[in-house]
Structure formats: structure tokens, C-alpha cells
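Ticket #4471: structure output looks truncated?

Reporter: J.K.
Steps to reproduce: submitted the chain below (227 residues) through the standard prediction queue, then opened the result file.
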Amino acid sequence: MNIVQKIFTLLFSPIRVFVFHQVSEQFDEESMWACDWTEINQFKEYIRLLQNEYTFISLNEAYCHLQNDWSCTNKFAVLTADDGWGSILNVLPWLCEQQIPITLFLNPRYLDGIHKQERETEKLLSQNDIRSILESYPNVSIASHGWNHKRCKEMSDEEFEENVIRSNDALSSFKRFIPFYAFTFGKYNDSQLEILQKHHLIPVLVDGMKNHKGTKVIHRECIDGKK
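Returned output as attached by the reporter:
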């Protein structure tokens, strides 16, 4: 690290954005995905460790810091959850007690509770669940994970744009909908970034990177199964 990089790091700490999926007391191989699952106490322990080092802020706040602050020496982190699994309710009250904001990235195609592979698994959040969460937990916001959970990189530009529009139309009726779009499986085509820009949406990835000043996309780190 050269002197310019050292000075920049001192003046502006990178912001870390974390994503998780399913959280429950026990793993159920019939209804859960091992790569997406964390035991409740394990999840809380990891969040407490992060709290010792970072101040959790909302995704909107983080993006504002990244775009507007000339200097920021605070160590900030952001928490997000993907796919709209019902097990978020196992930790949402606790996160609220901890005053940790969270953004839920949702696929509105599945807000009737049916799994993305059209088979019964762990219950997904319904429209009524989302409205109840937004009424009960003021630190929760929602954003788009696409209309369905099809891999973005497999879509044509036309299909992807339709996916974006349908998702936005369905989610914009909810309070605290924010203009972020998380690519399914974290993969995308370059032209899809232009489509999101056209619709005034901020791209969100899962690539393990931290967020530095001026970034036009949000980088996330997966914390499923963290000890």
C-alpha cells in the first residue's frame, strides 16, 4: 500500500455489506439449503462480533456516505437478507432490539409463499407477512431481487428488463421500497448494468468485496454459516 492509498484509507473507511439467507434452530434437509443456512445462536454470535468493530447503518445511508462524503473515518456495516425466506422472522425481533437496520431483497413472484422451484420447502414470506414486517419493524426496508429467481446471466436483455420492470411494479406498492437491485447468484452481464441505470436502480452484487468511496455498485459478503 503506497502513501496515497494509506491516506485514503485513513480518511475513508470502506463499508462492508453482508448478506444471509435462512436462519433457524435446526437444519432441515428436506426444506432448507445447506449453503444458505445458519443456526440462530451462531448467527447472533457473529453479528455481535461485527458490532464490536462496526456500526450498522441502513443500505440507503451507506450508499449516501459512499457517494457524498469526502471523509468518513467511522467503520460502518450493512445487513441484508436475500430471497424472502420465512425464517427471517426467527431473528428479526432480535435485530430490531439491537437497532440493526436490514434490507430484504425479494422476488415478488414468490410472495404467495411458494418456493422458487415450485415445491414445498421452508415457507417464504407472503405479501401479508411483508406488510406486517414493515408495520412492526421501522428499521426494515425492501428491495428487488428480480421478479423471479432465474439466473440473470442466462436472460436476454429484453427478458432481464421485463424482469426488472415487473419486480419494481410489484414492490413499489410497499412502504420503504428502496431502489436497489440484487442480481440472482451475484452474476450479471455488462448490458444489464445499463438497464438498471435506465430504471434508476443501484446494482447489488455478491462478490466478497468491500465498498469504497464513489462506487456505483454495492458489493456484498455472504455470511451464511459463519462461526
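Triage note (M.O.): checked the attachment and the full C-alpha cell line is present. The first strand starts at residue 16 and ends at 20.
Status: closed, working as intended.
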